[in-house]
């Protein structure tokens, strides 16, 4: 059985992006980018339609720095699954499979049948539904030291269930970026006094 990791980059106040800010809030430290390059690239990426449209557009343009172009090339070469009722086949982005059914029903099959770990890319609503269903094995955040209260968009944790997070790894990158890697446990409600 393969693991599913939800993987977000967020502002300190929990936004996935912010209007007018550059990618990575302009804080893509060389140390963080080197760490990203060292991460295993043998996984299947899960995403929703909005993320697919955005990322496939980036891949088609393949502009930016050499590191960004390399990252897009690697993502293009890896298997991807898009959950959408609004997209139609054939999808333009190479190595991408469309699933029009319910992700909560499909992901257990993927975890059982896929030959490599699964991980998400963006897709706030998809991640929320997978976590709520108890399908997420790891929940990794890289917190960028900015507050985007006036311009932030895509609040990640709105409408999440209560979740206990057991820390398995943490790291601070230059520039104050914080990596937090957890095993999540969806709770039925607030824990009783003295437990989590």
TrEMBL record:
Residues 4-178 form the Bacterial bifunctional deaminase-reductase C-terminal domain. It comes from the Bacteria. It holds the Pfam family RibD_C. This is Dihydrofolate reductase family protein. It comes from Ornithinimicrobium faecis.
């Amino acid at each position: 059985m393969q693991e599913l990791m939800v993987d977000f980059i967020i502002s300190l106040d929990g936004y996935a992006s912010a209007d007018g800010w550059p990618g990575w809030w302009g804080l893509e430290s060389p140390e963080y980018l080197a760490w990203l390059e060292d991460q295993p690239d043998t996984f299947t990426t899960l995403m929703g339609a909005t993320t697919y449209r955005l990322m496939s557009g980036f891949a088609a343009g393949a502009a930016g720095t050499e590191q960004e172009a390399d990252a897009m090339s690697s993502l293009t070469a890896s298997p991807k699954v898009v959950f959408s009722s609004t997209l139609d086949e054939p999808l333009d982005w190479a190595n991408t499979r469309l699933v029009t059914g319910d992700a909560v029903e499909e992901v257990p099959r993927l975890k059982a049948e896929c030959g490599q770990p699964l991980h998400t890319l963006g897709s706030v609503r998809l991640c929320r539904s997978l976590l709520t269903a108890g399908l997420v094995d790891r929940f990794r955040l890289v917190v960028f030291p900015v507050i985007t209260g006036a311009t932030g968009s895509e609040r990640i944790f709105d409408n999440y269930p209560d979740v206990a997070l057991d820390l398995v790894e943490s790291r601070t990158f230059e520039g104050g970026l914080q990596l937090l890697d957890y095993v999540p446990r969806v709770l039925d409600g607030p824990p009783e006094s003295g437990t989590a």
